[in-house]
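Input record (one chain):
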Amino acid sequence: MLTKRLKKPVCLDDACDCAYVLQCLDQDKSHQNSYMSDARAPYGRTGRLETACGEKSALDAAKTLETQKTLEAPTTLDICENAPGEKSYGDETAFNIEEEAGVFHKEPERVFIADDEPKIKISIKGPKARDIKENYQKALDFAQVWLKTRDLQVETTVITTKLMGSQTMPKAVIFEDNSAFALFIGKSRAYEKALYLLSLIVENYPRLILFAYKKAKTFLNYLDEMERLLSVVSYVKNHKRPGIYLRELDLPCIDTKFIEHHQGILGELLDEVLEREAIDEHYGKGSDFARRYGFLDKPGQVRFRLLDPKIRLPFIDCAYPDVTLDEKSFAALKIEVKNVIVVENEISFLSLKACNQTMAIFGAGYGFRALKKASWLKSKKLIYWGDLDTHGLAILREFRLNMAPCPVTSIFMDYATLERYKVSCVEEPKPRLEAELSDLTEEEALAYRALNENKFVLECPIKHLRLEQEMIPWKDVELKLKELGLFIP
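The corresponding structure, as predicted from the sequence alone:
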């Protein structure tokens, strides 16, 4: 069900037949008829793939076609693609094949014809009468390439012109079975492997049948790794939320890097196979893969400094210590501070000092999972300071949501700050496009709207403004901390 010309290398891309036929494995004929009646295949400008096959043969045919992604063409034929305005069969001796497997949705009952061997017939877009008249030798060479190719069954047609008489030209190429088709395009091994893996899925992972049909291209992209991927899927299925580090997995030919490099596809497979209670939906399939499927993960880190020289940690007897703890240890801290200021810029975080009963935490962008676990933070006065741009305000919003119901006050993240320091702004490389952000104060929302609508574009030569924390004079920072009653002069 595709419209793709073959060239060198050949790409038979997006064959959807696999999607249909795989459904035949555990759905009845009436449902299939309905499914195929609703199908909409892109029609090619020329050519048709015709397949007469039984249920099993249709499965093989579909698998064959679906395995033909970025396939090498046989070297016996020179293949090129026509540019607009060129003759239909190219400047050199060449051929084009376009597939249109409309037979499956036009005549779904043909899937159940009990033919032992499917025959695949693909139209050849060759020279017309005008082409023969304009360049007889080129047309003749084109025909000879097809008609003299060994072990190739070619259907011909006769084209008659007044000047050249009757000429036999190739009309279609016919393959006796799927193996012959795979051999012709140089992918017999890939075809056999796809058949083996699909049989493995049908036998052991019935829930993945639907995945293989919906995500056929994804399935084919991982042919070489699929057996190893399925071994990981089997382990997780048989050891519900295993509670070990990925490094502890003892599977043949599987190491931590393999899993890390294939978290996306593994996540898709596991989501299909596992029961809902075995998946923690709070975490995604990518960087949170381990937590999503019940493995132990590297703990989050929290970096902080005590800004009151009178407050000391029991294990570090010095003023303004710079400490990093894992999230569990940080959550267990008992420190007598009243104020906590989260700072996104590292040099600003390091520059803070002499603040009464205050702790500074290095924010480092999106993600506050480690801080959320420290319930004692929610009894403190929380202050947030980040870059004043669309992403900075979105991070402020995320911090607020994570710390709720404890209120969060921001500094230097309002409209007045943006207007005051607009000449010090730089360009925000990839601004957020949302028109509004919830959970902002009125002044913060005004700043976001001004950034989003480029309010200062006439006053500044920059389209998307970004006020970095370093651009605010330090004396202004100290003044703000005094206003909040934090700064110790």
